[in-house]
Design brief:
By secondary structure, the chain is an alpha/beta fold. It is built from ten helices and twelve strands. The protein has a five-stranded mixed sheet with strand order 4-3-5-12-6, sandwiched between helices. A three-stranded antiparallel sheet has the order 10-7-11, covered by helices on one side. Helix 1 packs across helix 2. The relative contact order is 0.14.
């Protein structure tokens, strides 16, 4: 049986994360000898080296050390949730929730969620990541996130999914374009025009698939991985774009941006579902379950309607 303490694991994890025994000692307010001793104990117990020590250059995990550090971090995360659940017995849920959100949705979607959850659980701590759908699913699979906000198309059998809303596609069009004077547009009207494509994993294939069966469509004039750049290019007249979640400042009656209009596409074609993905067949800590419940309550209240174009 392996013989080590939780404190020793925290010392080893900090040293691996920071790449320095001295930095880990400073971060954890302990001595360098304590960090070194923890590493030595764990290496002796495991029977292999966790780190390569290079004078004046710090420490670097070995191949086995990298795998060990992943397991240690996963275990330390579980202990944090365990401690939070113990503290929550007989009282309000507390602890840390690590979430990740699809980057183009985050600015519009997250504020009402975070406002509601922090009001309900003022002692809650949040760790947030943003990225494209492939990246945030990797965060979930690696344990860097307890839950992710993403589209259903990005998950597989390893994940559970809680739908929040259907997000029909809409066309983003410069106000100088005659199409912007309409109340809605069709894919046929867009097919012959230059398109500014949001070129992210999953998103790219979805947006182009809307034009399946239309000869020569879409005409991709520009592509970018930045939703902000998409809006800038459309505003400058380089073409239309298609998105699913309305950016901040582009709601009905908003005067923040008069250069763009968001028009519903009729018929909408395939409508993706946005929601919460978690790891399947894993009982979530109490605070994570409370977070998901809060989001589902917001769904029932219609809180996400304002970020959609119908």
């Amino acid at each position: 049986m392996l013989n080590f303490t939780l404190k020793q694991l925290r010392y080893v994890e900090a040293a691996g994360r920071l790449g320095s025994i001295a930095s880990a000692a400073t971060k954890l307010n302990t001595s360098q000898s304590s960090i070194t001793a923890a590493i030595d104990v764990l290496e002796a117990e495991l029977g292999f080296d966790l780190f390569l020590r290079t004078p004046a250059k710090g420490i670097h995990p070995t191949s086995a050390g990298l795998e060990t550090l992943k397991l240690i971090r996963s275990y330390l995360d579980q202990t944090l949730h365990f401690e939070a659940d113990l503290l929550s017995v007989g009282g309000a849920a507390t602890g840390l929730v690590k979430l990740a959100c699809y980057s183009t949705a985050a600015p519009s979607f997250l504020p009402p969620v975070l406002k509601s959850i922090t009001t309900r659980f003022p002692s809650l701590s949040l760790s947030m990541l943003e990225g494209h759908m492939g990246m945030i699913i990797n965060c979930l699979d690696s344990g860097e996130a307890d839950l992710v906000f993403t589209y259903e198309q990005s998950i597989d059998h390893r994940h559970a999914f809680h739908p929040l809303f259907a997000a029909p596609p809409y066309a983003l069009i410069a106000t100088g374009d005659p199409l912007s004077q309409q109340t809605e547009v069709t894919l046929a009207q867009l097919a012959s025009r230059p398109m500014v494509l949001l070129d992210l994993p999953f998103s790219r294939d979805y947006f182009t698939s809307l034009f399946d069966g239309m000869q020569g469509a879409p005409i991709v004039a520009h592509s970018t991985r930045s939703s902000e750049m998409v809006r800038a290019l459309v505003s400058a007249g380089f073409g239309f774009s298609i998105l699913n979640i309305r950016p901040l400042g582009y709601g009905e009656g908003d005067a923040q941006n008069t250069a763009l209009r968001a028009l519903p596409i009729r018929p909408a074609g395939a409508v993706p579902i946005f929601g919460i993905a978690t790891t399947a067949n894993v009982k979530q800590p109490k605070i994570v379950r409370a977070f998901i419940e809060t989001c589902l309550n917001l769904k029932a209240q219609g809180a996400f309607d304002r970020i959609l174009v119908f």
